[in-house]
Amino acid sequence: MVKFDNRDKAFALELKSRVNKCLADNGKTQFADTAMYIKIVFWLASWAITYGLILFWDMPGWGKVLLAIAHAFTHLFIAFNISHDANHQSISTNPMVNRILSYTLDLIGVNSYLWRVAHNKEHHGFINVEGIDSNVNGYGLVRFAPWDPKKSTFQYQNLYALFAYAIATFNYVTVKDFRIMLNAYKAGEKIPFAAILELVIFKVFYYGYAFVLPMIFLPYSFGQIFLTFLLCHVILGISLTMVFLCGHLTEGAHFPTIDNEKIAEPWAVHVVKTTNDFAVNSPVFTWFVGAINIHIIHHLYPTICHTHYKLLSPVIAQTIEDFGYKYNQIPTFTEAIISHFKYLKEMGKAA
Ligand SMILES: [Zn+2]
Fold first, then answer.
1. How far is the CA of 100 from the centre of ligand 1 (A)?
2. 350 pLDDT above the threshold of 70
3. If you measure from the C-alpha of residue 88 to the centroid of ligand 1, how many angstroms do you get, rounded to a whole number?
4. Neighbouring-strand partners of residue 275
5. Do residues 84 and 24 make contact, with C-beta atoms less than 8 angstroms apart?
6. How far away, in angstroms, is 350 Cα from ligand 1 center?
7. How many angstroms does the Cα of residue 179 sit away from the middle of ligand 1?
8. How much distance in Å is there from the Cα of 197 to the middle of ligand 1?
9. How many domains does the chain fold into?
10. What confidence category does residue 24 fall into, taking pLDDT thresholds of 50, 70 and 90?
11. What are the φ and ψ backbone dihedral angles of 298, each rounded to 5 degrees?
């Protein structure tokens, strides 16, 4: 198992003490504040209301498609604003509250147990580390990492990558969860029976409200409902992927050298080198994406609720600079997207 060289603790300790002081000075704990609880109620209510309107508001077909897209966006914002925090246990001191809210991910079709393994252990523990971080796996479709084999088709990847991103969430809710579960079973990994049961129950629930209820209550064919479902996932897949990829895979992305299962730097330094903040000064964007754009602090302290990131971000940036490291920041989301595609072009060129 790959290990970091954590002997030099100075940076991590100083970060921790400044972050704790900032929270205390502002009368905050690491957990949810009122702003967060308002967000939870707002997004869950938006999910329910938009869904109810699709089924029961009498309007033309194109209006239903627009409503379906609006409803799909509530899935995205539930994932960013509620599920992500809950699965990192950053909402409440009561583990039960985090556990219940973590099921918001299952509500939108993704198994929270498997997501916690891939996101919390693999991605958070080992950003951009070969063979561990599944976020840099391009599945042979795109070349994200320097260790990926070279192919001549990759020289066009900056042009076609969007098509791959478009199927990301569709893949997640249809085959990916089942495939991960099956692979884990084949590899002899221990999967709690409750996780398997939850996978089945929530997938039935998800397809029930995505297909069965619309088939019963709406005058549309399965094909029309499926196409709307697909369109929603194309929009979701691209939106979700862009936000997540802009945090780690932009120009100059860092991939640590592993020597004899060791990475020769402390974990906190590794986080700072492999992670970007972007659009930090856009309060509206930050509100919608659950502050995932203020990504360095999220990786350093995933158990701090995201509504505190804006407050803590200058403290993190200052500490990084005080220790002589580079604070990776891209001013806007548009510039971060452009930087990601330039990165793709660069990675494809090497082929
Ligand atoms: Zn995370």
1. 18
2. no
3. 7
4. none
5. no
6. 30
7. 22
8. 25
9. 1
10. very high
11. -60, -40
Q: Considering only CA atoms, give the Rg of the chain.
A: 21
Pick from 113, 138, 112, 116: nearest CA to 125:
116
**pLDDT confidence of residue 351:** 53
Contact 285, 293 (CB under 8 A): yes
- 341 Cα–ligand 1 center, Å: 23
> Which tokens hold the place of 20?
């704790």
**pLDDT tens readout for residues 299-341:** 999 999 999 999 999 999 999 999 999 999 999 999 999 999 9
Contact 114, 173 (CB under 8 A): no
Distance 84 CA to ligand 1 centre (A): 6
Least confident of 2-16, 129-143, 205-219: 129-143
Per the structure, the complete domain to which residue 132 belongs is given by: 3-349
Ligand 1 centroid – CA 329 distance (Å): 18
**Dist. CA 275 → ligand 1 center (Å):** 12
